[in-house]
Amino acid sequence: MLVKRVFNFAAAHNLIKYHGKCESLHGHNYRLEVTVKGTTNDEGMVIDFLELKKIVKEEVLNILDHSYLNDIIEQPTAENISMWIWNKLEKKLKRKNCNLYEIALYETENNIVYYRGE
């Protein structure tokens, strides 16, 4: 079973190793989807949505929301941000019955990165 929770955060960045429009400072209203895969536990849940929300808020949103991403991630492309989020959440979401399955990061509604920890 796949369980997904959606989050939003705003942040600014500039791509220092890129030559083009995104080289300049700019911001995005990101949409983050965190998906956990597993089987239901004794309570009939893969993971409690409230617990998932708390972990993502503490490990990711409290750090990234309204931040300058370059202070956190050297080259904050959507790909690198997705990997950073995965690394922050993977161990925190590992249970007997479930684990982190996928990060989907929407930089815009048309530009999306999916990451599964490869």
From TrEMBL:
Zn(2+) binds at H13, H26, H28. The active site is at C22, H66, E107. This is 6-carboxy-5,6,7,8-tetrahydropterin synthase. Belongs to the PTPS family. QueD subfamily. Its cofactor is Zn(2+). The lineage of its organism: Bacteria, Thermotogati, Thermotogota, Thermotogae, Petrotogales. One of its GO terms (molecular function) is metal ion binding. Keywords: Lyase, Metal-binding, Queuosine biosynthesis, Zinc. Pathway: Purine metabolism; 7-cyano-7-deazaguanine biosynthesis. Binds 1 zinc ion per subunit. It holds the Pfam family PTPS. Gene3D superfamilies: 6-pyruvoyl tetrahydropterin synthase/QueD. PANTHER family: 6-PYRUVOYL TETRAHYDROBIOPTERIN SYNTHASE, PYRUVOYL TETRAHYDROBIOPTERIN SYNTHASE. It comes from Marinitoga hydrogenitolerans (strain DSM 16785 / JCM 12826 / AT1271). Its EC number is 4.-.-.-. It catalyses: 7,8-dihydroneopterin 3'-triphosphate + H2O = 6-carboxy-5,6,7,8-tetrahydropterin + triphosphate + acetaldehyde + 2 H(+). GO terms for biological process: tRNA queuosine(34) biosynthetic process. It comes from the Bacteria.
